[in-house]
Known about the structure:
The protein is built from four helices and no strands.
Amino acid sequence: MQEISQVTPPPTQSIAPLTSPSELPKKPTVTEIQTWQINYLADVLEIDADEIDITVPFDRYGLDSSVAVGMSGDLEDWLGYEFDPTLLYDYPTIEALAKHIAAELQTE
Length: 108
């Protein structure tokens, strides 16, 4: 009968995180999200960004559902975050939507 030699496990090594907190992608601020939305609407409506008020509801700008869905999709692409296209109806102003999205991104 042969003796079975005891197998010694390799020494434990500390595993470094894949990315340090400083290398993680920066989450956009409320102001950055608002600026994105303002520029998006200005482009769609063909008006100057200065004419857009962040407290005015989206429907007051005459946006239809196809623009709302398009904006939601483009926001998802920019943020890398998926959310319900009806979010623009739940948070009907640039200000409200930006605050909500920024808060959601912080809890990720």
